Automatic annotation (TrEMBL):
Entry-linked PANTHER family: PROTEIN SCAI (PTHR21243)
GO MF term set: transcription corepressor activity
Gene Ontology process terms (BP): DNA-templated transcription
Recorded superkingdom: Eukaryota
The protein's name: Protein SCAI
Amino acid sequence: MVKMASTEEQDRKIVLEFCHLLEKSKQLFNGLRDLPQYGHRQWQAYFGRTFDVYTKLWKFQQQHRLVLDSKYGLKRWQIGEIASKIGQLYYHYYLRTSETNYLNEAYSFYAAIRGRAYYSRAIKEDRPDLMVKKLRYYARFIVVCLLLKKMKLVRELVIELERQIQEYTTTYEPEDQLEWSLVLEEIKGFIKAESAVAVLHADTNPIVLSHSGSGSRLSPLTTPPCERTPHMTLSLQEILIVGSACEQAKFSELTMDMFRMLQTLEREPTDAMHPMIGHPMAHGGPHDASPAASRMPYGVPGSKGYVENGDRRTMRDNPHKYLLYKPSLSQLMVFLSSGFKELPPGGALLLYMSADGCFSTTKHPQDYGYELGGLATSVKRDAVDSGLSVRGKSSAGYKEPHCLYPGDLYPYTRRPLFIIIDSDNSFVFQHIPRYFGQPLVILMSPQDIPANYQDLQHHGSLFTLFLHSPMTAMCYICNVGDVPIHHWDRCQSYVDRFVTEASRLVTRCRMDEIEQGIGYIDSSYVQFFGDDFLRTLILRFVFCDVALRLHRGFRGRHQRPRCEPPLPGPELLEHPSLAHIVLQLATALDVRGHFVEGPEGD
């Protein structure tokens, strides 16, 4: 009897400890939404505590599963809910640190929920709130799979989600039925827009390429070569990616342009980079192998640019990013200021903005900072800020308040600044002065595209597509809808040759200027050129300019991109060797007729 009483007391303590950890984890998780979204040090300690509690909770339920099953009545969906929260933690940690390895960790937990069928009996619980949790889990898992380019799995998950939504709405006839239908349509539209060009396997099934320069993250195989010089001093440290285009495919506050650009500015994750990341399945119980919570990031990075794990430190692989979907102007300025404040010595700030133009009616502008218009921002939070106007109806004598003007960026030119503007009013940003003598580069999209390419605007901007995947953009402007994998690889080799040659020409332009005083290229480009990401963007911009310059369909000056400071023409943008490679690529794609007659011997 004494032994039985002792066992019961021990079981009671296990249940109480589980309840304590569960409640503590919920409190900490709910507190995450109150943390500031900007800055670095303000939130790291809190995340560390949250990870720590979830580590203990996950291990505890594994170690005492039999007791919790019998005495607490632990259900599989409750285990799934804990795993889902851990997956969310990893995803949000990825968003805040920009480290893609944490995205893989989120995937491991989400995949385990599906593999172990933790939510399989959710509908039998007769709880609509539980079904909503299941649907939200599917939506989050789809986002992670999209970011990891697991498109086959994405399509499977969409089918499952559609079935679950149907079951949910049929069983409960909920008020949010329309909302979930819209979510489903949004996902389907995003997937359709994402696959601008299908790369076909031998069996004609579309595949997703990871390491072939097809728009994947940067890897050693896709990093453009560079002959380094002492002037290449800057590294990209802070990024602001803003998506405000109204009529563009989106999912989970990621427009297609944002989705493409954030991947362009990340490296492919590798286990070797972060030794703290282990095998996705470990510490499993006798009947339920599960993700290893021991892989959660203990501790908090002590300083910007490092990821810590005990005594081990590794340099951060990716620049830090902020992702803003249709921000108000005040939000935009706060995050821009935060990125500016966090810049270390030798660091550069990148602002990428995809937005609709906000146009001026001033006939004789004198102030290029504010009288040429700018980019429209969201009015959802700023609408009552000034009381002056709503978009499109500015009061006489006043400027549109819900607009980012070139002049708004002047203060940030005190530090090295790299700007990418994708808009139908992009060229107004070419007049930003260099008051402080710091490196400044502005890449601007075409302000117009031919009518037969207008459909692309909903699927994402052509300019951003060039910066993300030059080969895909080349196929798109030539109406090539699918390419066999072996042919894709051959064509991609031309893009690689172009990038290598353009990189050589940029370096030669600088050396010619120093030695002979010819072929001038602004020093800003040279200082940014040592950074892998910025070099990639500059060279892909060159490819975009050369390709559109040669394409018969893009004849107007507003249909080609611009940059400030201007890149040299004869020595780079109009160099015969670059034109020759683009025309060779066109021939390989069997679309030579889309391009003007090239140099002799093409």
